Amino acid sequence: xxxxxxxxxxxxxxxxxxxxxxxxxxxxxxxxxxxxxxxxxxxxxxxxxxxxxxxxxxxxxxxxxxxxxxxxxxxxxxxxxxxxxxxxxxxxxxxxxxxxxxxxxxxxxxxxxxxxxxxxxxxxxxxxxxxxxxxxxxxxxxxxxxxxxxxxxxxxxxxxxxxxxxxxxxxxxxxxxxxxxxxxxxxxxxxxxxxxxxxxxxxxxxxxxxxxxxxxxxxxxxxxxxxxxxxxxxxxxxxxxxxxxxxxxxxxxxxxxxxxxxxxxxxxxxxxxxxxxxxxxxxxxxxxxxxxxxxxxxxxxxxxxxxxxxxxxxxxxxxxxxxxxxxxxxxxxxxxxxxxxxxxxxxxxxxxxxxxxxxxxxxxxxxxxxxxxxxxxxxxxxxxxxxxxxxxxxxxxxxxxxxxxxxxxxxxxxxxxxxxxxxxxxxxxx
Amino acid sequence: xxxxxxxxxxxxxxxxxxxxxxxxxxxxxxxxxxxxxxxxxxxxxxxxxxxxxxxxxxxxxxxxxxxxxxxxxxxxxxxxxxxxxxxxxxxxxxxxxxxxxxxxxxxxxxxxxxxxxxxxxxxxxxxxxxxxxxxxxxxxxxxxxxxxxxxxxxxxxxxxxxxxxxxxxxxxxxxxxxxxxxxxxxxxxxxxxxxxxxxxxxxxxxxxxxxxxxxxxxxxxxxxxxxxxxxxxxxxxxxxxxxxxxxxxxxxxxxxxxxxxxxxxxxxxxxxxxxxxxxxxxxxxxxxxxxxxxxxxxxxxxxxxxxxxxxxxxxxxxxxxxxxxxxxxxxxxxxxxxxxxxxxxxxxxxxxxxxxxxxxxxxxxxxxxxxxxxxxxxxxxxxxxxxxxxxxxxxxxxxxxxxxxxxxxxxxxxxxxxxxxxxxxxxxxx
Lengths: 430, 430
Fold this sequence. Notes:
globular; five-stranded mixed beta sheet; 16 helices; homodimer; five-stranded parallel beta sheet; alpha/beta; 10 strands
């Protein structure tokens, strides 16, 4: 099975010759720091070996729970925010399609404080059979806690306390915290947010796996893709190693004054993969006054929106473009006798082919315009490729962060708004 | 009725004293350039007086067409890209809610080249009664032209040539172009993309109005909001003028080395307003190597994603935060006897109140962290406020662009990718 491809040929011309060789020693040192667990944040390296060393007993329970959910629920409400949300959302959006609908519909909640959003969900689920997966390490994060308080009450009114308990699945700390305590008291089935994996690296733990499995996806193939990518990245020399090359070029461009990295896709189903990537890199590296600003664009739609700026605005951008070889969908442009729209030159071509040409044309335009392009190749819209993609970005991010000289595994700045909010809301102790 | 509010008090401390006074003459000169039509791009100033001087006969036809669509169609497919897409999408997303569903469901197409997306839409509309609004000045823009070729065939198969013609509405050039010609031949009802209004400024023309009206929204109130905001912005002195102040601060921060403007919201229904804003500002100002990079964030969800970077990454950011006073929705946190989640301190509070405190806490955190905050206040989630908001941003953008010294009404860079793509696809003449 093909793994993630990475191409630097549309980027290297923007750097001095041998730049990638000159940074090689630093990138390899960062890789060693990561793999030896000798760097900052080394308590959070559980994701490195996860595709091989995951808990097989829990994995089997996840599949069993997903099967039960598929059998008794039209909707699974997944309550979580940040790392307890974006991985599952990315996977579900990437994999679902008109001819392979979700086994159970997934509705995400608890990632905002919007009354309108909550009421909209309550309206949507009024007549649907329900299960819930609430995901929170502590159980007291405000957004998911509010949502779960509302949904728990609804579930108990609808199914009774015991019936609700059989439909509520908790993913939380293995031993401590408010949600763990509640689960024990109420008899909810529990899955584990591992102690040594931060939220943004947790998609291949129970955090991501239960919702992904419940959507009908093959999580064995997802893990196999991640494990295969891991094996490849661990053993491949620097010059041919996609993750090490990505880390090298990100750092090189940052050191050369670039300020913004755009992650671009050409397919709507990639949108939430970009959102997941934004958290991974922004939360890992946006600290100590450092880090590329992370933006994502969906092409070609955004070429008609911010395309002008990418083409001709400040030249402080780099662009990483994800291309998917096999999208699993096809539709041809047909010939038309009138040809008012002058599209007959496209007749007989598939949209995937035209889209590929749009990618090539865009790359050429942006490179000509002064924006270095890095290309990430995803062989197929399936679980194996997605698992490989998740691992590729995670591994690249860890190496990238150590090369940059920050701790890629903490997020001290995330507390600031919460503390202020708690104070304003009159929470005890703030 | 309240208009758009704007507050600079969380931003001015980041600039030297009297900075806003020092740039006043330049901003007022830019305003004069705009209103006198003496600047670059002055052929595209039709939007300035549009809220007063719109075509009343066409406006009545739009309402009539919308009423027919509501009567005979479960789905209106709106085909367009960029400025022929984002305004309507922003309005429809902003206004719809669980207790005020769209009169006709709106599905947007023709803003990508994704086979999967097209097939997904074809699957969704299989059993639905349909109308179509295709929006394109020329009628040959690739993305919408492909979508319309597919949908036109489907409509004719389903309704016959004549039946389809009565359900297809064209918004295009008043006299020329491929789509105008097709409409005349086929007998489609036509609405006008005005010659003197560029795509990104066109939401209050037929481009935006037909889909917005078909969704069930009150377009009279939308226009009244825009007209009221226009009157206010034209007559209010610099010091109290929201649009002039916004233009002043954007330019001041840009001249002080800021590189990225984040437009943030705290409600999911605002997401596409941000997307519309991104096109408006990025396409107007991202040229000649200039312009703030435009990004948008949906809080609080993105505080758990890129919040770390906003709080503590490179200090080259400014943040403009949109707050909505009356969202039209309410739900309280209830008390819970067990209080496992420790949320009882919020019992009796409405989510709108908690969300407001999250806004205040976030603002304080980001300002403390070195990110100047500008605040845009939207009185109500309704048509009047939205019309005012559209006009506020448009007017600010025109003044802002002239202050920056570029032509805010062209977009020469958007052609680059198209030319390359046409060449790669073998289009004649490329």
